[in-house]
């Protein structure tokens, strides 16, 4: 919504909040034990990849060089 309203600062804050607070702080910390197993759950890996892709797609218009590097 913030991108459609051309609120760049708000869109950047929303993307940063998703990436840092929701994805890294919550989801990655929750699945660390699962990822340490020799056979991690495929649905966990699929969710991880889907969230990472979403986060990078949100970040790309705001920080293209950073998103490309990640």
From TrEMBL:
It comes from the Eukaryota. One of its GO terms (molecular function) is valine-tRNA ligase activity. Its EC number is 6.1.1.9. Keywords: Aminoacyl-tRNA synthetase, ATP-binding, Ligase, Nucleotide-binding, Protein biosynthesis. GO terms for biological process: valyl-tRNA aminoacylation. InterPro entries: M/V/L/I-tRNA-synth_anticd-bd, tRNAsynth_Ia_anticodon-bd, Valyl-tRNA_ligase. GO terms for cellular component: cytosol. The lineage of its organism: Eukaryota, Metazoa, Chordata, Craniata, Vertebrata. The keyword Lipoprotein does not apply. The gene is Vars2_0. This is valine--tRNA ligase. It comes from Odontophorus gujanensis (marbled wood quail).
């Amino acid at each position: 919504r913030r991108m459609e309203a051309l609120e760049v600062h708000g869109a950047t804050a929303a993307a940063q909040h998703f990436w840092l607070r929701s994805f890294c702080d919550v989801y990655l910390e929750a699945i660390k034990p699962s990822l340490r197993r020799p056979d991690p759950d495929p649905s966990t890996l699929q969710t991880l990849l889907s969230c990472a892709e979403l986060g990078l797609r949100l970040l790309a218009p705001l920080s293209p060089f950073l998103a490309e590097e990640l």
